[in-house]
Design brief:
Strand order of the largest sheet: 3-2-1-4-5-6-17
Shape: globular
Largest sheet: 7 strands, parallel
Distance between the termini: 40 Å
Radius of gyration: 20 Å
Number of strands: 18
Helix content: 25-40%
Number of helices: 13
Structural class: alpha/beta
Number of domains: 2
CATH topology of the largest domain: Dihydrodipicolinate Reductase, domain 2
CATH superfamily of the largest domain: Dihydrodipicolinate Reductase, domain 2
């Protein structure tokens, strides 16, 4: 039986370990002993307590495993991935770190490593869809609308974070890049708000965020590409008020002789309001629109995803849609269906013949359905 080690046992890392332990020998690594104890008590999963911020022993940690899944917070992701590449281990990564993953491409090639990055729902499946259709048609327009939201709306933010609040706040502070008429355009996050209706949910508010990531370079020949985040209407107003007041500033300020970054303070405060509680109902909604020409004919493809918290497994929708994308792609690597070495975002995986349908089938078997029109 092949052995997999999952670095990080947060909401998504836990879902990944639970899914993979059905077919593989899985070890979960985290500093949170309570989470590790839960996994060991309820599933055939081995556990190791380790502070993954210390990358000096990563080589020793992963030495005996066939594949590594990296599910650490974004601020730790780049350094961890570099350590895994130096350890010569194939890896599927969902940390969504802010650095450019392709800075590690040469290192990965030298070490003959397959490193699949950004392998979640968005970025992740959004890249995967576009990569596939860019191979079989001449794509001219791509748009991804995506959000994870609580079922119950609580004033004022009407939002709960399915992952680290500091990673969410980064979406609201990092400049948003998109492609318009063949040119890369940069706009402020939260800009260009639109109200969009989704069946089964109602009207949501979309706004610019920096979600295209690798697509800007890997599929830069596509003249129009945009990603926007979805929230309940009114959310932008409250976030913008905090931004304007300086609560997201990165420059430390002095409070009673202590230096504090306003962003760190804000993340601590919002964690109380945004923490997604166990068994709390939430959902993931995504709409991917791809337009272009195929065999000389105009074609528009739309994929809609609406996925809800699973009360049987008690896994959140965001954990399932993100984590199971990573485990689906992990299967392709373990089975030898995807062998490309170097830094490989999901669009590269989908462009490999025979890799597109198996991922959709894997997700559908777990009740995650991307419905095409």
């Amino acid at each position: 039986m092949k052995k997999i080690i999952v670095l990080g046992a947060g909401m998504v890392g836990k879902a990944i370990a639970i899914d993979l332990c059905k077919d593989y020998a899985v070890t979960s690594v985290d500093v949170n002993q309570a989470t590790l104890d839960f996994l060991k008590a309820n599933y055939p999963i081995q556990t190791r307590s380790y502070n993954l911020q210390d990358t000096s022993k990563i080589h020793e940690l992963v030495h005996d495993y066939d594949l590594v899944i990296e599910a650490v917070p974004g601020f730790m992701g780049y350094a961890t991935l570099k350590a895994l590449i130096l350890a010569k281990k194939n890896v599927v990564d969902i940390s969504f770190f802010p650095e450019d993953a392709f800075m590690l491409d040469k290192l990965a090639l030298e070490n003959q490593v397959t490193a699949i990055v950004d392998c979640g729902v968005a970025p992740g499946m959004s890249n995967f869809m576009l990569g596939y259709y860019a191979r079989i048609m001449d794509v001219t327009h791509f748009e991804c609308l995506v959000g994870g939201l609580p079922q119950v709306r609580e004033w004022p933010f009407e939002y709960k974070a399915p992952f680290s609040p500091i990673d969410v706040l980064e979406e609201y502070t990092r400049m948003a890049r998109y492609v318009e008429n063949g040119h890369c355009v940069t706009k402020a996050p939260l800009s260009d708000p639109e109200l969009i209706f989704f069946p089964g949910i109602g009207t949501l508010e979309s706004f610019n965020t920096d979600g295209l990531r690798t697509l800007i370079n890997t599929l830069g020949h596509i003249p129009n590409m945009k990603e926007k985040t979805l929230r309940y209407p009114g959310h932008i107003r409250y976030i913008q008020a905090l931004k304007d007041a300086g609560f997201f500033d990165l420059e430390p300020i002095s409070i009673d002789h202590a230096q504090v970054r306003p962003l760190d303070f804000t993340a601590k405060i919002l964690f109380k309001k945004w923490k997604l509680m166990p068994k709390e109902a939430e959902f993931t909604v995504m709409r991917i629109t791809i337009k272009g020409q195929q065999q000389g004919k105009e074609k528009t493809i739309v994929y809609d995803l609406l996925d809800h918290y699973d009360p049987q497994t008690q896994l959140s929708s965001m954990a399932r849609t993100t984590g199971f994308t990573a485990t689906a792609v992990a299967q392709l690597v373990l089975n030898g269906q995807f062998k490309r070495q170097g830094i490989c975002p999901p669009e590269y995986v989908a462009q490999e013949p025979g890799c597109f349908e198996p991922v959709l089938q894997y997700l559908a078997a777990r009740n995650i359905h991307y419905r095409q029109t």
